[in-house]
From TrEMBL:
Coiled coil: none annotated. InterPro entries: CBS_dom (IPR000644), CBS_dom_sf (IPR046342), Lmo0553-like (IPR017036). It comes from Metabacillus niabensis. Pfam families: CBS (PF00571). The keyword Magnesium does not apply. Residues 8-66 form the CBS domain. The keyword Transport does not apply. Keywords: CBS domain. This is CBS domain-containing protein.
């Protein structure tokens, strides 16, 4: 899955131009309610970095800065960007403590931002929060072919989502399996019995409604 399918487009992003003053940037952040926005130059084409409200306040209070000072020296996280064609899952590693990442196209032009909310949307989709259904938390001893065995056991029903946890653990893995919500209770019980017969342990079952 590529970043290009899960980010906020440029036309919906609030940002500052590199040439604005500290006062203008502070007023803009206060008006929009954001603690940080991207800084762009070249009429909004080039990503420069992030400007934080807290840094603007520090400039005024701790450094006796002037209203008409430029924000150039306060721009942070100049490498806080990712490309449209990068794997979406790269954002998990890159974003970490940042409020968002800028998204650039193949021409290195600013296309938008990817936020923690975008990441949560993808995770919610994996958990079946959008489609609904039965969410099974399954424990299994780590072994080669574990996922294949699980999928084979439920091959006659629709799998809405599949997420694995504890990857890399030598002994135990948890698997989150989302099955279609139109299953009857009898069919669900049949699936559980089948999974348990193959040494999968059902740790929890939740009904998700959308």
């Amino acid at each position: 899955m590529k970043v290009r399918y899960n980010y906020v487009k440029k036309e919906d992003v609030k940002y500052c131009e590199e040439h604005v003053t500290v006062k203008e940037a502070y007023d803009y952040l206060s008006q929009t309610g954001y603690r940080s926005v991207p800084v762009l130059k070249d009429n909004g084409k080039t990503f420069v970095g992030l400007i934080y409200k807290v840094h603007l306040l520090e400039h005024f209070v701790e450094r006796n800065g002037k209203d008409d000072d430029k924000i150039s020296d306060l721009i942070a996280n100049k490498d806080a960007f990712i490309y449209e064609n990068d794997s979406f899952f790269k954002t998990f590693i890159t974003i970490r403590r940042l409020p968002f990442l800028a998204v650039l196209n193949e021409q290195n032009e600013f296309s938008g931002i990817i936020t923690h909310s975008n990441i949560m949307d993808v995770l919610e989709d994996s958990f079946g929060m959008k489609t609904g259904g039965y969410l099974l938390t399954i424990g299994t001893k780590e072994h080669k072919g574990a996922l294949k065995d699980l999928v084979t056991a439920v091959k006659d029903v629709n799998i809405e989502g599949l997420l694995t946890l504890d990857n890399g653990d030598k002994y135990l893995r948890r698997i989150i399996l989302n099955l279609s919500g139109d299953l009857t209770e009898a069919k669900l019980e049949q699936i559980i019995t089948k999974l348990e017969s193959k040494d999968f342990r059902i740790a929890a079952i939740e009904k998700i409604t959308n």
